[in-house]
Amino acid sequence: MTTRIISGILLVVTVYFGFSHGSRVFQKPSAQYLEMMQSLGITSPMRIAFGIVSIFLTLLILFPKTFFLGNTVRALLLVLMMALALKVGNYKFALIEIPFIMMPLILIYLGHPLKNLSL
Asked: pTM of the full predicted structure?
């Protein structure tokens, strides 16, 4: 029971971050944000694609059947962002991503909170 509660809380937090970070691409980006993306080698179309994929993956983790796939691809996307940051020497950005990578991995370990729910 405790596992389901922790998994549920992590799921809600992940959904919040997924939608908030994904929807950011539909807002006018700040100069600092654009500069950071450009330093990573991410163009504006790539930035929009990352945002749309982030929202899609967030939707996938809501459902038990696509939970594993959504979390796995989400973790891979975050590893890609970290790798791009490390490539350009932005260690602070790479370190900030560590908790965000841990969330989908912990969720995979714990499983979907509604997976074996008997109604």
From this structure: 0.84
